[in-house]
UniProtKB/TrEMBL annotation, chains A, B:
Pfam families: TetR_C_16, TetR_N. The keyword DNA-binding applies. One of its GO terms (molecular function) is transcription cis-regulatory region binding. Coiled coil: none annotated. This is Transcriptional regulator, TetR family. SUPFAM superfamilies: Homeodomain-like, Tetracyclin repressor-like, C-terminal domain. InterPro entries: Homeodomain-like_sf, HTH-type_TetR-like_transc_reg, HTH_TetR, Tet_transcr_reg_TetR-rel_C_sf, TetR_C_16. The lineage of its organism: Bacteria, Bacillati, Actinomycetota, Actinomycetes, Streptosporangiales. The keyword DNA-binding applies. Residues 46-65 bind DNA.
Amino acid sequence: MATEPASRSEAMSRGPGRRPGSADTRGEILTAARRVFAEKGFDKATVRGIAREASVDPALVHHYFATKEGIFAAAMRLPLSPETILPELLEGPREEVGERLVRLLLRVTAAPETREPMVALLRSAMTNERAQGMFREFMTNALLFKVADRLGVPHLRIEAAFAQMFGVVMARYVLKLEPMASADPEELVALLAPTLQRYFTG
Amino acid sequence: MATEPASRSEAMSRGPGRRPGSADTRGEILTAARRVFAEKGFDKATVRGIAREASVDPALVHHYFATKEGIFAAAMRLPLSPETILPELLEGPREEVGERLVRLLLRVTAAPETREPMVALLRSAMTNERAQGMFREFMTNALLFKVADRLGVPHLRIEAAFAQMFGVVMARYVLKLEPMASADPEELVALLAPTLQRYFTG
């Protein structure tokens, strides 16, 4: 590739013990992944197709990102992959899953560096048709339905829970409605956890 | 005022018994109002300031739109003014206010011609700083806090209710998450009304 030498030297600066080129290969896979997700959406994109687009072996893609969900999260610069969120949410008493979800989302959205990429994805999903399709497929198939199916919750109920927290994140951080924007996280947990718990346990 | 004769002559075209001129005066007031709201935000804009910007008498602005809330709704092409929504919401048994709110919002958002201007305002509030300030002030001071104060509900709770329904409208009509997008309105009422009712009655 024409750009490899430049990228290789960049790769080197990433840290000791790395062989030249590997940081850049990662970047090239992500660039290819963004193209493939934009063209095919999340559901139809495959690790193999992304590898082909990046001219690398699929095994290398798996090596860097483990799963398609992992590639998507990295390509969209999301701070967390479903694989790291879901266990935290699903482990623990069933009657506290609402509270765990509120705490998890408030923690993840509290720091600008983890919040901003998520808000950027939501914003583009609301204004751009292609981003919308990708977001919809990822959100439902990689996140919401996985949680719902694991907990035996109907899909409509998990989407009602998603809608509540999507609205809270928007009202608190994007629209900055007061008193929501400055509310103490514990107050929000007390207010919102019972709502989510009701959706999860009926 | 300089433009009054012209505006007066257009008023006539609006219907029998009306003198020509007012339809255009109305349009000029709305154009002026959009400028004033964009510059000053909702709270600091005044009927007097909008009248001055449109070079008409404040009484004429009141004649067309009754209140600042009414001007804002018309200027943003909102299908409903707070004055028409609030009585419908507040009248009736207190223990059914959650259900009334869900029904009202589902009805208003079901038809594209009433939904689209609302979604457009929400979209621009999420992507444009100025629209955000206007939206925030209008949403809290002209709608949410009025309902909250009338019902004696803390402002944070009314914003949690807003967040739930904002999320539902986005998930159903903008992101088009299934099964939410195709869900029967009665199913949504049964699912969401208890959430809102809890925010309203604690």
